[in-house]
Amino acid sequence: MQLRLISWFFITLNFMEYIGSHHASRVRRQGRMHPNVSQGCQGGCATCSDYNGCLSCKPRLFFVLERIGMKQIGVCLSSCPSGYYGTRYPDINKCAKCKADCDTCFTRNFCTKCKSGFYLYSGKCLEKCPDGLEANNHTMECTSIGKKNREEKRKKSNKDESKETRQESKGRAARRQNREQRENNNKTQPKKRKAPNKEQNLAPVDTAH
C-alpha cells in the first residue's frame, strides 16, 4: 500500500514538472515573436517595442525606419522627411526612399529636386542635359537654350527699371526738399514796408498874387 502511494506521488510530481516546462517554453516563443510589445506607446505609435521602436502608427501618420548606427527603429511622422515619399495603404501608411540622385520626389520614378551635381528634367535627375537643352545652374534644371537668355534679359531689365525708379524717387525727393526750403526762407524773411507816395504828400502851391 505504501509503495503504491509513493509511486502515485512521483507520477504526479513528474506530470506537474512537464506542464510547467511546456508553459515556460510557450512563453519564451511568444517573447521571441513579439519582444516587449506595448499598447501604451508615445510619439504617434499604435504599437511599439523597446528594441524596435514603433511597430505600427496611429491613423494618418506615416511609418518610416530610421537608422541609428547599425540599428533601425520605427518612427511615426505626420509627413515623410526629405529624401522620402509617402504611400498610403488600407492598413498602413509608409515612407519609402527616393532614388539615390534625388533629393525630394513625388514617387520613386518622379523627382522634384535633384542632389548636387544633377539637373532635373521631366522628373529625372541627369548629369548632363539632353541635346537642345542647357544646364541652368541657378535652378539646377535643364532648360531650353533661349529660355536662359530670356530670363537673364528679364532680370537685367527689371534691374534697370528698379535703378531708374530709384533715381526718379531721389529726384522727386530733392525737388520737394528744395521747394520746402524756399517756403521756409520766405516765411522767416521780414516783410518790407511800402514807401509812401511822394506825389500824394506834396501840398499844392498857390501861384496867384
Explain the overall architecture.
With 209 residues, this protein is α+β, with helices and mostly antiparallel strands. It has 3 helices and 12 strands, in the order αββββββββββββαα. The chain has a two-stranded antiparallel ribbon. Strands 3-4 form a two-stranded antiparallel sheet. A two-stranded antiparallel ribbon has the order 5-6. The radius of gyration is 46 Å and the shape is elongated. About 7% of the residues have low confidence.
Summarize the main sheet: 2 strands, antiparallel
Helix content: 25-40%
Question: Please, how many helices?
Answer: 3
Please state the average pLDDT score. 76
Order of neighbouring strands in the sheet with most strands: 1-2
SSE series: HEEEEEEEEEEEEHH
Q: How many distinct beta strands?
A: 12
What share of the residues does DSSP label as strand, in percent?
A: 25-35%
Gyration radius, to the nearest Å?
46 Å
Structural class: alpha+beta
- Shape by Cα distribution: elongated
pLDDT under 50 segments (min length 5)? 22-35
State the end-to-end distance.
Answer: 195 Å
Give the SSE map.
Layout: H1 2-33, E1 45-49, E2 53-57, E3 62-68, E4 71-77, E5 84-88, E6 93-97, E7 102-107, E8 110-114, E9 119-121, E10 124-126, E11 133-136, E12 141-144, H2 145-188, H3 198-201
Antiparallel strand pairs: 1-2, 3-4, 5-6, 7-8, 9-10, 11-12
Which properties best describe this structure?
two-stranded antiparallel ribbon; 12 strands; two-stranded antiparallel sheet; alpha+beta
Summarize, please.
By secondary structure, the chain is α+β, with helices and mostly antiparallel strands. Helix content is 38%, strand content 28%.
